[in-house]
Structures are given as structure tokens and as C-alpha cells.
Design a protein that fits this description.
- By secondary structure, the protein is α+β, with helices and mostly antiparallel strands.
- The protein folds into 2 domains: about 1-135; about 145-235, no CATH class.
- It is about 40% helix and about 20% strand.
- The chain is built from 5 helices and 8 strands; from the N terminus they run ααββααβββαβββ.
- The chain has helices at about 1-30, 50-55, 85-90, 95-135, 185-190, and strands spanning about 65, 85, 160-165, 170-175, 180, 195-200, 205-210, 215-220.
- The strands form 3 sheets. A 4-stranded mixed sheet has the order 5-8-7-6. Strands 1-2 form a two-stranded antiparallel ribbon.
- The longest helix has about 40 residues, at about 95-135.
- It is extended, with a radius of gyration of 29 Å.
- The chain starts with a helix and ends in a 17-residue tail after the last strand.
Length: about 240
């Protein structure tokens, strides 16, 4: 139970660290908003402050409400006072580039300070939980697990094709024909359209998508293997 709690706290801490790092990157861009080299124009001319603000806001999720009492504006500017992104508010004439810069900068400073406090709080919790786990003599529960060694990747001819377990229904086997190609041809296939599949629980073979169908691949110019024997079936 305590080891599981520690892993949950570690995961929560990593999430806060990621948010802090991302927010620091955004804040750095706002700090450099007056630097024309922050972005470049296709015509080579220096960018304007408004262009740089609009560019940074495209990747900035800052949002808030914009009441008319705090952000007065005349038509045709948007009169919407509800919650909306700073990017929409800028394009709707609700805020100026200068106001957007100030709002985003202050928001990110607050977010970073909050994440720093959370990270420190979670680190204190981890220190306590780890000490308690060690006192119980169960610190080994936190040791990283050794990943299983991958099965050997074999290259052999199977003109009759191969029956491979369905990854979505383990008890079902799907028949896949085998095709032949060179290693260079296989390398040119996009990584999203090739993989490996386990055969007989003892080894892997190369696969690829061809004409919307999964096929096994035999490389004619690569080292050839004998087909390994099936792995022993574990008795339940």
C-alpha cells in the first residue's frame, strides 16, 4: 500500500514538474517579447510587437474572464464578458497587445510559484513515505523492475504463411501470408506501417502493411535462421 502511494505521489510530482517546465518556456517568450528576433518574417523585415504577441499567444493557453468594468471597449470589439482564451480576446479587440503581455506574464509567474510549492510539498511527502517504507524493511518494493528480455527476431522462409495470435484476443490466431523483400526495401517502409509479431511464444518476425493487410516479411539479403521450436505451454 505504501509503495503504491509513493508511486502515485511521484507521478503527481512529475506532472507538476512538467507543467512548471512548460510554463517557464512560455514565460521566457513573454520576457523576450520586445526582441524582434523572437520570430522572423518571410520578407526579412523586423516583426512588430503586435505580431510577436499574436505569435506567442497561438501556443499559450492563458484564459480568463474579461468583464466590461475592467476591460471597457466599444463596438465593434467583442462585448463577451465570459471565460475565453487570451488569444481570442486579443483577436476580438477586448485587450491590447500590451495588456495581453501583462496578463500572460503575471499568470505564468503565479503558475510557476504554485508549482514550486506543490513540488516541494510532494518531495516532503515522499521523504516521509520512503523513510516509513525503509523502516518497515520493504524499500526493495521501489526498486525498478527489470524489463523482460525481448524475444529473438528471426528471419526464415514460411511460404505457407504464419498463424499469429490476435493482439486483441489472445485465444484467436490470425493467418498472415509472407512476402519477400530486401532489407533496403523494408527500411524504406514508414515506421507506422511495420512492426514485429510474436510467433509460437518463442520468437518474433518482421511484419508490414501491404494493400491494407498485415503480412510477414522475409528479408532475402539478411541472415537466415531456422524456425525456433514453440515455447512450452505453461500449465494452469
Amino acid at each position: 500500500m505504501r509503495a503504491r502511494r509513493i508511486r502515485q505521489i511521484e507521478a503527481e510530482q512529475r506532472a507538476h514538474q512538467r507543467l512548471k517546465g512548460h510554463t517557464e518556456q512560455l514565460l521566457d517568450m513573454w520576457v523576450r517579447i520586445d526582441d524582434p528576433s523572437l520570430i522572423t518574417r518571410q520578407d526579412g523585415q523586423p516583426t512588430t510587437p503586435a505580431e510577436r504577441v499574436a505569435y506567442v499567444l497561438k501556443g499559450d493557453p492563458t484564459s480568463k474572464c474579461f468583464p466590461l468594468s475592467e476591460f471597457p471597449r466599444d463596438l465593434p470589439a467583442s462585448q463577451d464578458e465570459g471565460w475565453q482564451s487570451l488569444y481570442v480576446a486579443l483577436n476580438g479587440g477586448i485587450v491590447t497587445p500590451e495588456q495581453a503581455t501583462r496578463i500572460a506574464t503575471e499568470s505564468h509567474q503565479v503558475t510557476i510559484a504554485r508549482q514550486v510549492r506543490w513540488i516541494a510539498h510532494l518531495e516532503n511527502r515522499l521523504t516521509y513515505e520512503r523513510a516509513m517504507l525503509e523502516e518497515q524493511g520493504a524499500a526493495g518494493l521501489l526498486a525498478p523492475k527489470t524489463p523482460p528480455k525481448p524475444l529473438p527476431l528471426c528471419n526464415y522462409r514460411a511460404p505457407e504463411g504464419l498463424a499469429i495470435p490476435n493482439p486483441y484476443q489472445k485465444e484467436e490466431r490470425l493467418f498472415h501470408p509472407q512476402i519477400e523483400m530486401t532489407a533496403a526495401e523494408y527500411a524504406r517502409i514508414h515506421k507506422d506501417y511495420k512492426a514485429t509479431r510474436i510467433v509460437d511464444g518463442s520468437h518474433r518476425v518482421r511484419t508490414a502493411m501491404r494493400e491494407s493487410r498485415l503480412v510477414c516479411v522475409f528479408l532475402i539479403d539478411a541472415k537466415k535462421h531456422n524456425r525456433p521450436a514453440p515455447a512450452p505451454v505453461e500449465k494452469k
